[in-house]
Design brief:
Layout lengths: L44 H9 L14 E3 L2 E3 L11 H33 L9 H7 L11 H12 L3 E7 L17 E8 L3 E4 L1 H4 L4 E5 L5 E9 L6 E5 L20 E6 L8 E15 L5 E8 L11 E3 L5 E8 L7 E5 H12 L7 E2 L5 E2 L2 H7 L7 E2 L3 H4 L11 H5 L6 E5 L2 E2 L6 H5 L7 E8 L2 E8 L1 E2 L5
Antiparallel strand pairs: 1-2, 3-4, 3-6, 4-5, 5-8, 6-7, 7-8, 9-10, 9-12, 10-11, 11-14, 12-13, 13-14, 15-22, 16-17, 17-18, 18-19, 18-20, 20-21
Length: about 475
């Protein structure tokens, strides 16, 4: 016998009564199977009445409630509170709301279409990608440098201008600040002009009788020493060649501590055009090599620099030469030094002009001031060039060389030079850097702090002796 309760109440008709022929007793009282009418709030009365008076909603506009999938997981259908859970009253209300929404959307679409047609916007051709790009104004965006791609790009751009220099004909200097390299003497160099001009380290070529210069592309040339820098560990080598790849020259004064640093050279004289990378660790470093020579105002970097890298390039993230690699600390790792390219620029310009390499000279021994030194020595300023008395620093050389331009201008021990021609001396703009911008014979004005008072002295720059 069929179950008289097996049905789904989706209409207001009563279920079929049991057939007495089946042997079941007829109920003694009438049983109503219609679901109890929910108590409807007053605000819904009008809408429900209207729905009951309206034609029935077409099938297939709505599906029966069931478990629905949602983005990110599944949610169960909300359980009914009783048989039918409000049945048609709630379903009719939803139908009215959705139907009203569809009508509103249709009317809005028709209105929008009319406005667009009246304005002629619909008649305009579809813009192409080129048209969009041409008429789009892009707001300035911050430049983000990807370190890996920067290194790759810099290496590809500059490596052709990095050369390997092999010197022969004389014994190698045992006091090479980068230590012993192969017996023939091998270093690196940077082509800075396509007509065969190379900047390298003095200790790479000094004392040699012949130079062999190899390019990355396999070409080899004989080179000659054009000149030796009397101020720094730099030298100029000349090749008889034209159309060579030249490295872009940057501005070392614009570089900041912490920026990317890329070194290219020939470590050990064997691994030519090797690329290493790190950061700029500091500026204004002073070191003393084993032969007693002091190298000042150096860039410190943790990019790997090894014997044979001498004379190679230190690059910024854009692939511009900002320094010439010169030395490395033997007793530590990650401490290398390069000569700022701005210090090298004057002799590079002199070479291109066919002039003899010469540096301006004033004839002093000084200490670049820091806050620590100023506090320790109880000095009035923490920046400048202090003509340190021998008694304070334990030096044997006088702070002012007798007969030098400094002596003639009236400088004395204990003076602190604070500016040159109005350019203030700072940690980022030390005295030597400022003086490299002047040629010998130029007259400059020095602001000097002496006994707590500032005086101005006039000094004519001399030519630095080759023996220094």
């Amino acid at each position: 016998m069929s179950d008289p309760f097996d049905w789904t109440p989706d209409t207001n008709t009563a279920p079929p009564m049991p057939d007495p022929s089946d042997g079941a007793e007829a109920p003694t009282q009438t049983i109503s199977y219609a679901p109890a009418t929910d108590q409807r709030p007053a605000w819904a009365a009008t809408e429900v009445d209207a729905e009951q008076a309206a034609p029935p909603t077409p099938e297939r506009w709505f599906e029966p409630a069931h478990t629905e999938a949602v983005t990110g997981g599944w949610i169960p259908a909300r359980p009914a509170s009783g048989p039918g859970a409000g049945g048609r009253a709630r379903g009719g209300l939803v139908g009215v709301v959705v139907a009203a929404s569809l009508v509103s959307a249709t009317l809005a679409s028709v209105g929008t279409y009319g406005v667009l047609r009246a304005s002629g916007s619909l008649d305009k051709p579809t813009p192409t990608l080129a048209t969009v790009q041409a008429n789009t104004v892009t707001a300035p965006q911050p430049i983000v440098i990807d370190e890996q791609s920067a290194i790759t790009t810099a290496a590809a751009k500059v490596s052709p201008a990095i050369v390997t220099i092999t010197s022969s004909g004389a014994a190698r200097n045992p006091n090479d600040p980068l230590g012993q390299i192969p017996a023939t003497g091998v270093g690196s160099g940077v082509i800075f002009d396509s007509n065969g001009w190379i900047i390298t380290n003095k200790h790479v070529v000094a004392g040699s009788s012949s130079l062999q210069v190899a390019l990355q592309d396999g070409r080899e040339f004989s080179g000659t020493i054009y000149g030796i820098d009397t101020l720094t560990d730099l030298a100029i080598v000349k090749l008889v060649a034209t159309g060579l790849p030249a490295a872009p020259i940057g501005n070392s004064s614009a570089v900041k501590v912490g920026q990317l640093a890329i070194a290219i050279g020939s470590p050990l004289g064997t691994y030519t055009n090797s690329v290493t990378a790190g950061i700029i660790s500091a500026f204004g470093r002073t070191i003393q090599v084993e032969d007693g020579t002091q190298l000042r105002n150096l860039i410190q970097t943790d990019a790997a620099i090894n014997p044979g890298n001498s004379g190679g390039a230190l690059l910024d993230a854009a692939g511009n030469v900002i320094g010439i690699n010169s030395a490395v600390a033997r007793t530590a790792e990650g401490i290398g030094f390069a000569i700022p390219i701005n210090i090298a620029k004057p002799i590079m310009q002199q070479a291109l002009a066919g002039q003899k390499l010469a540096r301006s000279w004033i004839g002093i021994r000084y200490q670049a001031l820091t806050k620590q030194i100023a506090d320790q020595e109880k000095l009035a300023v923490s920046e400048g060039a202090w003509l340190q008395p021998a008694s304070a620093g334990g030096a044997t050389d006088p702070a002012v060389v007798p007969g030098s331009p400094a002596a003639k201008a009236g400088l004395t021990e204990g003076d602190i030079i604070t500016s040159v021609d109005g350019v203030k001396i700072t940690a980022l703009a030390p005295l030597d850097d400022i003086l490299t911008e002047y040629v010998p014979g130029t007259t400059v004005a020095l602001d000097v702090l002496r006994d707590g008072k500032t005086i101005t002295l006039t000094l004519t720059l001399g030519t630095r002796p080759a023996s220094l």
